[in-house]
Design the sequence.
């Protein structure tokens, strides 16, 4: 179980850092799924990217892992409106090049990612 836990920590770290960097390299991709009711779209893309990188890096360090996991949970909850918007908006789906089915199937994965972060927040 220890090896599996270490593997998932490393996988999560790589995933969050990679996606966070992608926010800066291709912000247009993320702007496609910003709900219209939110202000400062570009700034929010950069802020979420920054926190994905930061939290992904903090996952590596056992001393900071619990804080990183709780930060990831908060981050995932805060970006959930964008995922809901993607599932509801044909324009957003076209912008990302995904079908409504794929966009809808992404929603439960947020719960899986939250659960994984919660699992890793425990020692």
Sequence:
């Amino acid at each position: 179980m220890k090896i599996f836990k270490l593997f998932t920590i490393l996988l999560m770290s790589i995933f969050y850092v990679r996606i966070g960097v992608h926010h800066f390299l291709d912000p247009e991709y993320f702007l496609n799924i910003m709900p219209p009711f939110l202000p400062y779209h570009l700034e929010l893309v950069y802020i979420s990217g920054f926190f994905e990188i930061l939290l992904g890096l903090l996952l590596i360090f056992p001393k900071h892992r619990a804080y990183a996991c709780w930060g990831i949970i908060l981050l995932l909850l805060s970006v959930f409106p964008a995922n809901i918007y993607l599932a509801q908006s044909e324009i957003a789906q076209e912008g990302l090049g995904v079908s409504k089915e794929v966009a809808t199937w992404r929603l439960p994965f947020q719960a899986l990612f939250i659960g994984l972060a919660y699992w890793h927040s425990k020692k």
The mean pLDDT is 96. Residues 2-121 form one domain. DSSP finds six helices and no strands in the chain. The longest helix spans residues 62-88.
